[in-house]
Amino acid sequence: MKYKICLLLVGLLGTVLFITTACEKESAQPIIEDAFNNGTSERNMIVVMSDLHLGADLTYAECSKNLGSLEKILKQIKAATNVKELVIAGDMLDEWFVPANVNTYQGKDQIDFVKRIAATNKGVFDVINSIIKEKKIRVTYVPGNHDLTITANNVESVLPGINQARDKELGLGTYSPANATKIAIEHGHRYNFFCAPDPISNQDTAPGTILPPGYFYTRIAVLHVMQEPETPADTPPVVTKDASGTASQSLLYTYWYVWSKALATYPIANKFDEKIIVTNVNGFTGNYTVNDILPYQTTLGGMIDVKLYRGIQDSWNERQTLNHVDIPIPVSQAIAGSGKSSESELQAQNQYFLNQNSDKRIVIFGHTHDPKIIASKNLNDEKCIYANSGTWIDHNGVAPTTMSFVVITPQNATASSQTYVKLYNFENEIITTMAQDSLRY
User: Fold this and answer.
1) What is the pLDDT of residues 213-229, one digit of tens each?
2) How far apart are the C-alpha atoms of 355 and 189, rounded to whole Å?
3) Assessment of whether the complete model's pTM goes beyond 0.85
4) Between 3.60.21, 2.70.70, 2.60.40, 1.10.10, what CATH number should domain 14-195+325-439 receive?
């Protein structure tokens, strides 16, 4: 089932200073309210949604049963007189969640694939396009890892007029709404070893590619979802630590360990030497085996090597620089923490609140599918808020809820006014408050 692999997919996908959990003000009984009403006539509210995971084929798309609910909440947002902006913070157009043996583009190209997603999810796209066309609410898209290589032109082809918050490099972006420069919204994959753009690896095989290893993991994991084999056809070969004990070899062993656990947990009905991974995406043109991706040893205790992503354990620091990561993350931490929501929460702290070059006080990520609000302090002992907007997939294996979103109501000039950050879900098509907090900056 799809929900079985969510936990690993979202990540593949130290102690955090000052974190408190008191900000997660959840009641014993859910609070039902009008999430898009600020009690005034001012249009100033910012709605953040992420991880819609809209696919081109509902046979395996992660968001299928929830499409009707997504369409309804978007219509409520459109009708709301107080909403100023709708931000879609990544993983909207899903190019990753496709079975390994399926030709993603069906022999065509990315723009055709994107248009198939729009046609498959027509109701949702019709509402978003009507919001854009009406021009009362600004709609902004920020790239995620599952739509890492989707170009700005191809997004524009199905959502004409949408604002796109992108870095100069493909696959990344951070957005601060107008007149709210203390807020930063990004998907969060920039800090993830398996999911951040990788413009270094595989250039001899796929010139120009930026696909990280999480792409191949996801393709294999979706094949497991479709096959649900009773008995695995193959198992990861045993690899032991290289007797040389070099730092690079130790890191590659950790990389192998993450892969081997994933493949053992979610087996497939194919041998690992079968060329079952169909690419023709982002520079890759061949068909690949699981063994092409999995680190191996010719002799136990000998040198560990890998075909695809050779040297990835040594290029992380350069990769972080290219991806504009302000505070470098140690590679051992990045590999080991790649599947943990807590690592994203830590990076919100380190990259923004504990970064002397950052003035952000509110940070919103998606990516982990783990909706929450966490308050903390920055280097100046000022209150800060991290929020995760969760996901809209049918089955969320990371958290007990899905169909969640964040609403920010900015402060006004009154000295006592606060900027409110509220987390909601829309399960059973009722808007329910999950958590909330506020601060003034």
Assistant:
1) 999 999 999 999 999 99
2) 18
3) yes
4) 3.60.21
